[in-house]
Amino acid sequence: MPGYRRRESQKAGLPPGTLVHIGEQQPEAVQIHLIEYDKEGIHERRLADIEEAFVFGDTPVVTWIDIDGLQDVEVVRKIGEQFGIHPLVQEDILNTTQRPKVEDHGSYLFIAAKMIYSSEEQRIETEQLSLVVGANYVISFQEKTGRDIFEPVRERLRHNRGAIRQYGADHLAYALLDTPVDHYFGVMESLGDQVDQLEDLLLEKPETDLLQSIQQVRREVLFIRQAAWPLREVVNHLYREASPLVAQETRLYLRDIYDHLVQMIDTVEISREIVVGLLDLHLFNLNHRMNEVMKVLTIFTSIFIPLTFIVGVYGMNFHHMPELDLPWSYPALWVVMIAIGVGMVLFFRKKKWL
């Protein structure tokens, strides 16, 4: 699964705060989406240049700047200069290997999270989401272009659904954080279907080689766990720590996200235990099948050992072996060998080894 580990060696030796994009390069150009809204109305437009978004100033409306794609380092640099974002925060935005976290920089909050998708091939894909939350603005950075999960949030803003336009930028940040959490449940449902299919195959066809499929699902479960656990701490920090940028009304909604993440983590842990059990069951089936093969080979070997001994004795080139001159010695030897073989088979059956 590409994207689980990404190289950071290109930053080796560079001073802290150096802006280097670490992640998958996107062929599309960076897309910039600007929305300004308040209780009365909303204004939305696409921007060709990030500097077009710097004209709103200290207006009472809430401004949402959505950056879709991180391959253009200059866009992040210009935003950082305009909004006074610390160089280390800009560096974290461009580093898509960031662990989910939250940092309070006084005039703004920096939040890093992971968005997880389930592809058509039932593979997990990941994308980093970074949020800079100010008093009256939210700047969101999506790692990959072409896949936008925030369209439902835009629809709520356009049609004034719910309470999103009644509150400030902190409530918008809540809505943006809630969206990837909702996607976690969809991914877990897809992963649960894969686990059920593997379990049915192991029970119906235990001889099937499913080690690679089980290991793949195990890695995906661990990856979701790695993304969900620290995000829970991020939401818990936003909910419990007092910040003038997060209103009391928004804290109630953040607690709802926290509850969803706790439920998600419980589901992940259950899935993890099931996958470990499937792996143990598969290895047991392999060992049992190997033992059955070895048992059959051992029985055949045990039957032929005395016959091989008899053949070896009468295969020696001695001149004086009196029984060789008797006319009935050859059929008698066959009778003895057959009797030994049949007797050993009956003995094995009586012992229930066959």
Q: Keyphrases for this structure?
A:
354 residues, 2 domains, 7 helices, 14% strand, alpha+beta, 7 strands, Beta Polymerase, domain 2, 7-stranded mixed β-sheet
The average pLDDT is 84
- Major sheet: size, sense and barrel closure? 7 strands, mixed
Which residues sit in consecutive blocks of at least 5 with pLDDT less than 50? none
State the CATH superfamily name of the largest domain. CorA soluble domain-like
The count of DSSP E runs of length 2 or more, i.e. the number of strands, is 7
Structural class: alpha+beta
How many discrete structural domains? 2
Separation of the first and last Cα atoms: 46 Å
CATH architecture of the largest domain: 2-Layer Sandwich
Radius of gyration: 34 Å
Write a compact overview of the structure shown.
The protein has 354 residues and is of the alpha+beta class. The chain has helices spanning 73-83, 87-94, 151-158, 169-204, 211-240, 248-313, 329-350; strands at 31-37, 42-47, 62-68, 101-104, 109-118, 124-133, 137-142. The protein is 51% helix and 14% strand.
